[in-house]
Every structure is written in structure tokens, then in C-alpha cells.
């Protein structure tokens, strides 16, 4: 059996597993004036403490390291699952909408830079080659055959 801990806001409630009677609570080595099965710590400051409850010769000890805050809300597993599922559904919905709206625009020609139509770009002749260089053609290497490395 263990000491049961319940946290609500800044209030920590400890429940001793011993049956009723004279129960002595010890918080950080200091005896507390409570003989009840439940001990309530109001405005807990989140500092780690050693807690023990004793009745006769039976003692239960625990190290309490509870983080508390005033505006905390506890979420159960079902609420977290619902939030994640809703987020995924909304994300997939947006993806499907973007896909269907962009699907119809593929065939349309958009105005490019400068607003020129694409047809003029296709009719332009290739650039004039530079007359300073002669291209190497297969089987016609004699133009460059006489070039050898020079020693300076």
C-alpha cells in the first residue's frame, strides 16, 4: 500500500493507507497536528518534501515532488486523443482543399516575368556562336593537332 496523492491547483491532499485511529503525519521531519486519514497541504510551493504517516509501529513513507500551479487544468487521455484527432482531420481537410483547387490551375498559362506571352520565346533563334572558337567535330581533329604544350 502507498500514500494516495491528489493534486488540485495548489492544494495537495494526502491519504494514508492505514485504518482510522491516531495517525501522525510527518512533513519534512516536522510533526503535523492532524490525526485524520487525510492530510491537506494548502498553497504547496512545489518544493520536494519527505512525507510519512504512522499509526502505532506501522509507518508509510514517501518522497513528494509535486509540481503545482494555480491555473493548471488536468486533461484525461480521451480529451488529449480528441484534440490530436481533430487537429489531424483539419490538417488533412486543408491539404485536400489545396490539392483540388490547385489541380484545375495546371493547364492555365500564367503571365511570366515582364508579361510576355510564351509563344514569342519559342520563335527566338539560337544565339550566334563566338567566331573566336571553332568547335571540335568528330574526325576533324587536325585543326588542333598542331597545338602542343610550350615550355617557357
From TrEMBL:
Q: Which keywords does the record carry? A: Cell membrane, Immunity, Immunoglobulin domain, Membrane, Receptor, Signal, Transmembrane, Transmembrane helix
* A Pfam family annotated for this UniProt entry: Ig_5
**Where this protein primarily resides, as one coarse class?**
membrane
Region ranges (Disordered): 107-140
| GO BP field | cell surface receptor signaling pathway; positive thymic T cell selection
Q: Which domain of life is it from?
A: Eukaryota
> Cellular component terms, GO, for this chain's entry?
alpha-beta T cell receptor complex; external side of plasma membrane
Instruction: Kindly give the membrane topology term recorded for this protein.
Output: Single-pass type I membrane protein
Q: What is this protein called?
A: T-cell surface glycoprotein CD3 epsilon chain
Q: What is the lineage of its organism?
A: Eukaryota, Metazoa, Chordata, Craniata, Vertebrata
Amino acid at each position: 500500500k502507498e500514500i494516495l496523492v491528489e493534486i488540485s491547483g495548489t492544494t495537495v491532499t494526502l491519504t494514508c493507507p492505514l485504518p482510522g485511529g491516531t495517525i501522525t503525519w510527518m512533513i519534512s521531519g516536522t510533526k503535523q497536528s492532524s490525526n485524520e486519514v487525510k492530510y491537506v497541504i494548502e498553497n504547496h510551493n512545489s518544493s520536494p518534501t519527505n512525507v510519512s504517516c504512522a499509526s502505532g509501529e506501522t509507518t508509510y513513507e514517501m518522497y513528494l515532488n509535486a509540481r503545482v500551479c494555480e491555473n493548471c487544468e488536468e486533461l484525461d487521455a480521451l480529451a488529449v486523443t480528441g484534440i490530436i484527432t481533430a487537429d489531424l482531420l483539419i490538417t488533412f481537410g486543408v491539404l485536400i482543399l489545396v490539392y483540388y483547387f490547385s489541380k484545375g490551375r495546371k493547364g492555365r498559362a500564367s503571365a511570366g516575368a515582364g508579361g510576355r506571352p510564351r509563344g514569342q520565346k519559342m520563335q527566338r533563334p539560337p544565339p550566334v556562336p563566338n567566331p573566336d572558337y571553332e568547335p571540335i567535330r568528330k574526325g576533324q581533329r587536325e585543326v588542333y593537332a598542331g597545338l602542343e604544350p610550350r615550355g617557357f
